[in-house]
Amino acid sequence: MKLIADTIKPNQAKVEVLAVFAFKGTPLKQIVKFMPVALQAECLKLSEQTKFTAKPKQTLTLATHGLLPSFLIILIGLGSNKQSASEIAENIREASAAAMQTASKYQANKLGIILPDKINNLSQSALGQACAQGLILSNYKFKKYKKIPKKPEPEMQETVFLHTNAKFKQGLKLGQIVSKGVILARDLVNEPSGEMTPDKLLKTAKLIAQKSNLTSVKSFNKSELKKLGFGGIAAVSQGSGEDAHLIHIKYKPEERKNGKTEKLKNREAEKLKIALIGKGLTFDSGGLSIKPSDYMENMKIDMAGAAAVLGIFSILTQIKPAFEVHGIIAACENMPGPQAIKPGDVIKIKNSKTVEILNTDAEGRLVLADALSYAVEQKIERIIDIATLTGACIAALGDDIAGIMGNNQKLVDDLIAASRAAGEKIWQLPLEPTYQKSLKSEIADLRNICKMKGGGAITAALFLKQFVGKTPWAHLDIAGPAWAEKPINGYTPAGAAGFGVRTVIKYLKNIN
Ligand code: BES
Ligand code: ZN
Ligand code: ZN
Predict the structure, then answer these.
(1) What are the φ and ψ backbone dihedral angles of 129, each rounded to 5 degrees?
(2) 45 catalytic, yes or no?
(3) 100 with 133: CB under 8 angstroms?
């Protein structure tokens, strides 16, 4: 679908469906001014009859009876213009999604959107991003395995915004780019684990890197990982017939030409080395501590952290951070094959710490421990890990909200601020130091499950903390929001959500 910003007049726009976004409180008379008089009257009457007050997501549809080039007008409510930027952005995403859904329902090829003249708190760039994301992400479907469609569905060809602010146009472009990253992450997670193996994750990383000379990939396979001392990934993957990989994808910014450097908000940022670490369990059966079948049903999603990292890398050369970004993915399968790790086994992580494995289903922290140690070895200065790590995080925050914990409050705060702007929900949990003792083992440095009953999301994060040293680090537990059992909002349909891409991209852009 093409997104276009055009100076065309509303009553001349050759689109089949015309959506008009309206703030609550703006007199409707003003909003409908562009319509022929007869339609204005009908619209005002209908708005009274249906009590349309432009509440968020409220809609009013009106046939034009041939009085305009469009056959249908849809008014979509945005709520009050006095809300915060993040609230307005969310309502814009929802309104864009609603416009797309209605236009698709009527099999329109072209959709036109009229935006309010004045938006109080939201920048034009953020407006453009929200519009693009609402439209594109709401239209996502994972159709690959439906070879016989019920009936061919016409795809929306283009959406025309009757709004041409230059910053808005830039925002539209950026919103399209970010949506591409989200969609790749969704596609990778929706793919069954029989297809989306560790090899396939590696192949995806290589394909991404091939597209630009600013990105490169190196990787270690199962036997190399074993030899090199990546005891976590080696242990978790040993019960599986699939290979395992530590995937290291690297983005290096273009060298700056002498004298002609772009202005950076923060010169320091140029020297920064950030790592994004993804849990890439392409299937988590639980291993010998096998999961009950209803818990195992959806465990192809256990690579959603890795998918988010790859989604981000797929668009990074268009985002162009001024600093190095390293994607480190621990990709393997957790299976109960004959060689599988057993409860009671002791393993050694890359940084030489030993772990007594008491539950083979707490595998994410073992592979992440290797990835975190590796990042520290690479002299990374800031680490963000993204992982479907614990069911306990779902118990704490529910399906829609990710947990965040870290050893550096500024990094956590910045990520939370980025998530608000990006429209993803994350909430901080405390990294309670007194819980650390519940991870003590009698025979090793650590045990992989804690002795306490509750607080599983926190103790999992405390386990990870043992492997980051002093490096500023934040951990996103996305076990809940990685997958939408039912649609979360208008632009996150049921299935893989691509969670994390929007927040991290916003964060990276903010420090640029
Ligand atoms: N991959 C799971 C966590 C998970 C649960 C992700 C639900 C997505 C949805 C993880 O490896 C796991 O099994 N964690 C255990 C840890 C426990 C054994 C300490 C859990 O949360 O039950
Ligand atoms: Zn598990
Ligand atoms: Zn897992």
Answers:
(1) -60, -45
(2) no
(3) no
- Is-above-0.90 flag for pTM? yes
Tokens 């190095």 — which residue? 324
Question: How high is the pLDDT of residue 255?
Answer: 80
**Ligand 1 pocket, mutate which of 390, 394, 401, 452 (most atoms under 8 A from CB):** 390
**Lowest mean pLDDT: which of 20-24, 125-129, 260-264, 451-455?**
260-264
Residue 363 Cα: closest atom of ligand 1: 11
For residue 482, which ligand has an atom nearest its CA? 1
Q: Look at residue 267 in the predicted model and tell me its pLDDT.
A: 61
Which tokens belong to 324? 């190095």
Distance 363 CA to ligand 3 centre (A): 6
The CA distance from 335 to 343, in Å, is 14
Task: Look at 47-61, 114-128, 151-165 and tell me which has the smallest mean pLDDT.
Answer: 151-165
Three-state SS for 25? coil
- Mean pLDDT, residues 81-101 taken together: 97
Mean pLDDT of 274-283: 99
Provide the pLDDT for residue 260: 43
Residue 150 scores a pLDDT above 80? no
Angstrom distance (rounded) from CA 476 to CA 456: 14
Catalytic pick from 57, 180, 273, 291? 291
Residue 252 in 3-state DSSP?
Answer: coil
Give me the catalytic one of 93, 200, 350, 365. Answer: 365
- Ligand 1 atom nearest the C-alpha of 389 is 3
Return the ∠ at Cα 314 (arms to 308 and 316), rounded to 5°. Answer: 100
Encode pLDDT of 52-76 as tens digits: 999 999 999 999 999 999 999 999 9
Our measurement of the distance from residue 199's CA atom to the centroid of its chain's CA atoms, rounded to an integer in Å, reads 22
Give yes or no: 291 in active site: yes
Q: Could you tell me which of 350, 5, 48, 299 has the C-alpha nearest to residue 170?
A: 5
Residue 285 CA, ligand 2 centroid: distance in Å: 7
Lookup: tokens for 304? 């959603």
How far apart (Å, rounded) are the C-alpha atoms in residues 414 and 503? 10
Tell me if 392 CB under 6 Å of ligand 1.
yes
pLDDT value of position 507: 98
- Probe target for ligand 1 pocket from 368, 386, 389, 462, with the most ligand atoms within 8 Å of CB: 389
